Amino acid sequence: xxxxxGALPIIAFLFAAxxxxxxxxxxxxxxxxxxxxxxxYNVTGIAxxxxxxxxxxxxxxxxxxxxxxxxxxxxxxxxxxxxGPLPPAN
Length: 90
Description:
23% of the residues lie in helices and 20% in strands. It has a domain of 50 residues. The chain is built from one helix and four strands.
């Protein structure tokens, strides 16, 4: 029983640290990119539509990616299609 009493502060600290990380809000929004014809575009904050871009259905292709070019929604089977002027990725 004494060993358990001695471990309680450590357990409480670990639980508090976990809760602080798990339930804290994200500080910044993720940048979102799309690739069309070998050119990458930064579409962060740009809504898809007929004058910007669309995510058309195509087998084994992902539409949107993160900064490391990893699919944001892997397995979504949608192709990024540029429909209007978009800012190029740096």
